[in-house]
Amino acid sequence: MNFQIRDAITANVHGQSATEIKDIVVDAIERGEEHLLPGLGVFFEKWWQQSSTAEQDEFVQKLEKVFAH
């Protein structure tokens, strides 16, 4: 992923509230447009870097279940 995308997305959401960030995520998912996926990827990357190993493990276990169906 291009670092310019990371920087732009980070700058665009800097200082936004949890509600505003949730609205961005929900909107991106509801639209289903592939060009929005890099933005969600940046959100995921930031979350992953700040999460504990236990949180990461719990998340990947949930993903395993989701993709098993």
From TrEMBL:
Transmembrane segments: none annotated. Induction: Expressed only in the forespore compartment of sporulating cells. InterPro entries: SspI (IPR017525). Its main location: other. It is found in: Spore core. One of its GO terms (biological process) is sporulation resulting in formation of a cellular spore. Keywords: Sporulation. Pfam families: SSPI (PF14098). Belongs to the SspI family. This is Small, acid-soluble spore protein I. The lineage of its organism: Bacteria, Bacillati, Bacillota, Bacilli, Bacillales. The gene is sspI.
